[in-house]
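Researcher: Watch the backbone:
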Amino acid sequence: MRGFGAEVHHAKTKDGYYIHVVHIINPEIDRSKLRRPVIFNHGLLESSTIWLINANKVKPLPYEHQCGEISPSQLSANETQYLNGPMMLANHGFDVWLMSMRGTDWSLKHETLSAKDPEFWDYCLDDFALVDVPTVIDYVLRKTGSKKVGYIGHSQATFSIFGLLATIPSYADIVEPVIAVAPVAFFDHITSVARLLFLGTLTATNKDKHGPFPKEAKELRTTLASVCKRPGSFLKTACDLVEMLISGKGDKWLLGYFAHLPFFTSLKVLRHFGQLIQSKRYQMYDYGAEENKRIYGSTRSPSYNIKRIRSKSLCLISTKSDALSPPTDVSRFKNQLTVPLYKDIFIDKDFDHFDLITSAGAKELVFKPIMAIFEEFELNSANCVPQQQSSDYKEDFTNEIGLEYHKEKDQVENEATAN
């Protein structure tokens, strides 16, 4: 729609899930001279499409400074490009990849399971952190031939990268920079209505029951997109109230946002969030004393050891009015780090959890600072080398998983909803 190309990839995890990854192509830039790859990852009930909502005015632009310092005039030119993170970076010569974690509407394929099988939905936040994210990182590095990859995550996706860096610290040498937008690890002071949803799943559902949430995701998106655009109606007022309760004080959500929320997740993920609130720890999933002993070797589920995070490129972007990730909880995470943050960007205004990636105000407050961080890393690391695609690059788009995937997507989604 906007002149960029898109290639669909599927990164297969060790437990058989096919993670949907979209490779954004800027046709105005020589692909042999691309700068480092950058992975965008999404939050709860979102998918990769959440990053594209502010892109309606963005067009592909040429970029001639892949291996040299960019002039201030070029950095400030074409202001509309800064409305959208992925296309902004694509316009500056970066190799952009958007991932959708297992269970979202885009990632409903599995080697042996169907989305109508309860076993398909037996995953939690640990699977995102320790399987999906490193799988996509390794996949992108293999495809591009790069030695480094940048990572930009929103909300749940920050939990995932923190967990990976705390469990396998060596990823700090590979993933540079790490941008955590609306960072979450602790939920001691969450005031969002989502708190009730998370805690409710601990008592209202059988912990051994697995399935998608919400079952009617597609229908809900259609209804929200229709209802919430009607000015002056009672239902529109209700939509405004939901925004405030979930996100905190901030800008009104764009209509496009209502068309892309919610996407599927698993009940087990919601239970995991509930456990984080209940335990006041940044912990792995709690299966109960007996099962914990079998899985972890201890009756208590382990905490992610934040002190093991040794990334020197970690950047946090947070805001004072975030009801899901309030400043006090972000500070608790920062206080446990043993390595200084590369950047700590705090937005001291009424700018909420979702404004950070969906609001037009994100151009100045979020995306321009991100662009500056990536420019610094390119200049400091001299990572500007031609990339070589792997020999199996074309094969990914000619096999059944690649070409036939979208033909099957609606059928798989309908099966999940029916189940």
Summary: The longest strand covers residues 17-25.
